[in-house]
Amino acid sequence: MHNKTIAELSRSLQQGDFSSEELTRHFLARIESLDGALNSFITVSAERALSQAKQADQRLAKGENGPLIGIPLAQKDIFCTDGVKTSCGSKMLDNFIAPYNATSVEKLNVAGTVMLGKTNMDEFAMGSSNETSFYGAVKNPWNTDTVPGGSSGGSAAAVAARLIPCATGTDTGGSIRQPAALCGITGLKPTYGRVSRYGMIAFASSLDQGGPLTRTAEDAAMLLGAMAGFDERDSTSIDTPVPDYCAELDRDLKGLKIGLPKEYFGEGLDSGIGDAVHGAMDEYKKMGAEIIDISLPNTHLAVPAYYVVAPAECSSNLSRFDGVRFGYRCENPKDLEDLYKRSRGEAFGAEVKRRIMIGAYVLSSGYYDAYYLKAQKVRRLISGDFKQAFEKVDVIMGPTSPTPAFKIGEKADDPITMYLSDIYTIAVNLAGLPGMSIPAGFANNMPAGLQIIGNYFAEAKLLNVAHKFQQVTDFHTKTPDAFK
Ligand code: GLN
Question: Does one domain contain both 197 and 321?
C-alpha cells in the first residue's frame, strides 16, 4: 500500500480494495517501526487518525467520491491543529496546543484526509538542513548520515521513506522545494496569496507560503486543489478562483518555451546536479519544448536581500513569544523584564536568536533606510527580472539546490555556506512566484531536483510540465532501499 500514489490510493479506496482504517493502520505501523532511524515526526496522533479514518470510511460507504477522502497525510508542525501540539520545532512552543485549525488544515480535513501526525522541522522554519529543530535533526532516508534539507525536512523525509503518502510544508526561501530535491520527491510552493496563511505560524509574512510535498505532480495537483483558495482571515489571500489542477495535467508540451537562466549554472553548482538538469532538458526537447537561454541579472542579490527582509519580519513576528501569552515561561522570574529575557533566552535556539538580532538591527532607526528599505528595492529589481523573462518564456527551469544532500554537521557552524543552499530558490519567494521541485536524477547516489518556476498563478502549468516529465521518467518512483 505504501508504494501507491494518492491518485492510486484514492481509486483503491473508492473501489473498496481496502478501507481508510486499514490504510491508516498500515502507515501508523510503518511510522512506528521505521521513523526511529529518521526522526521525521514530532507528534504521531494515532487515535485521532483512526477516528478520522473511520469517518472517512463512512463517507466512502455512502458513495461520496471526493478524491482525498480517506487519504493519510502529515502536517508540518508549523500549522496549528486543534487539540494536537503545534511546536514549530521550538522549545518555545513545546507545550502549545492550538485551540483552532489553520485554514489549510481545516480544508484538508473537510476534504476527508486523515492526519497521522505533525512533522519535524527547523525551529520556526529557519534553516536548510533540519538541524535547528529542538527535537533533533531529521535524517535523509537515502543516506541517514546526510540532511533531508529544510525547513520542511520532516515532511520530505517521511514522504520519501513512504511513511506517509503526502505531507504539507511551508516555503519562505525554499523550504518546500529544497527538501523535496534532497529527498527525491515532488514539492510545490504556490504563488504568494494562493494558500491561506491563517493558522500557519509566521516566520517572514511577506514570503511564507504553504504547499504540498508528494511523490508525483498529479498528487501535488490533488492536494493543492484542496489547500488553495481565498480566506477572509488572511489579508494577503487572493480572491481568485481555484482551477481544477488535475484537468490540465496531460496537456501537450509542443512549443513550450523553457528559459534556462545562465546565472543558475555558475560556480558552486555540483556537476552531477548540472548533468541531471541538462538531462531533463533533453527529455523536454523530445516532447517538443524549446530551450531558450535567458538571464536573471539580479540573482546574486537574492540571498543578501532575503537575509535582511526575512530576519526583519521574523524579529517582529517572534516578538509575540514573550513568556506571557504563548508557550514557554521561565521559572521564578524576578520581574517582568526578567520574565521576557529569560523566557526568550531559554526557549529560542541559536539560529532563531541570530535572526532576531539581525532583524532588530536592520529595522532600527538609522539603519532602516540602509538595509531594510534597500532590500525592498532589490526585491523589486528581482521581480523585474522575472517579469522580463516571462515575456519571452512560459516557464523557467534550473537546479533546485546547488548540491545534493550534505552530511549532518557539515555546514551547521557556518551560516553563510548554509544560507547559500537556497541560492536558486529564494528569488522566487522575493518575487512571490510559484515554484516546484521534481526528481530529475541522482548525483553521487543522492537525489537531484529540477526546479520549475512559473508566472503568477501558473500552478496548473507547472503541474502539467512536471507531470509530463514524470510520464517519461521514473526518478519519482525510486524508493530508498531501507524503506521499500
Ligand atoms: N533556508 C531558508 C532560511 O533559512 C529558507 C527557510 C524557509 O523557506 N522556511 O530562512
Answer: no
Let me know whether 215 and 318 are in one domain.
no
Supply the pTM of this predicted model: 0.98
Interatomic CA distance for residues 460 and 466, integer angstroms: 10
- Compute CA distances 180 → 122, 212, 290, whole Å: 15, 10, 26
Chosen domain end from 377, 409, 437: 377
Same domain, 179 and 325: no
**222 ligand 1 Cβ < 6 A:** no
Verify whether ligand 1 is closer than 6 Å to residue 57 (CB atom): no
From residue 150, give the alpha-carbon distance in Å to each of 22, 122, 226, 313, 409. 31, 6, 24, 19, 14
In a domain, residue 262? The reply is no
Domains contained in the chain, number: 2
Q: Is 175 a catalytic residue?
A: yes
317 and 239 share a domain? no
Predicted confidence (pLDDT) per residue in 415-461, tens digit: 888 888 899 999 999 999 999 999 999 999 999 999 999 999 999 99
Q: 385: buried, middle or exposed (CB in 10 Å: 19+, 13-18, 0-12)?
A: buried
Same domain, 142 and 118: yes
In a domain, 263, yes or no: no
User: Among the options 76, 118, 189, 468, which is catalytic?
Assistant: 76
Residues 126 and 229 in one domain: yes
Per residue in 186-198, pLDDT (tens digit) is 999 999 999 999 9
151 CB near ligand 1 (under 6 Å): yes
pLDDT tens, 30-52? 999 999 999 999 999 999 999 99
Which structural domain range is residue 361 located in? 300-377
Q: Which atom of ligand 1 is nearest to the CA of 306?
A: 10
pLDDT the model gives residue 418: 87
* pLDDT confidence of residue 384: 98
Q: Which three cell numbers stand for residue 171?
A: 516555503
Q: Which of the listed residues 119, 175, 355, 426 should we mutate to test ligand 1's pocket, taking the one with most ligand atoms within 8 A of CB?
A: 175
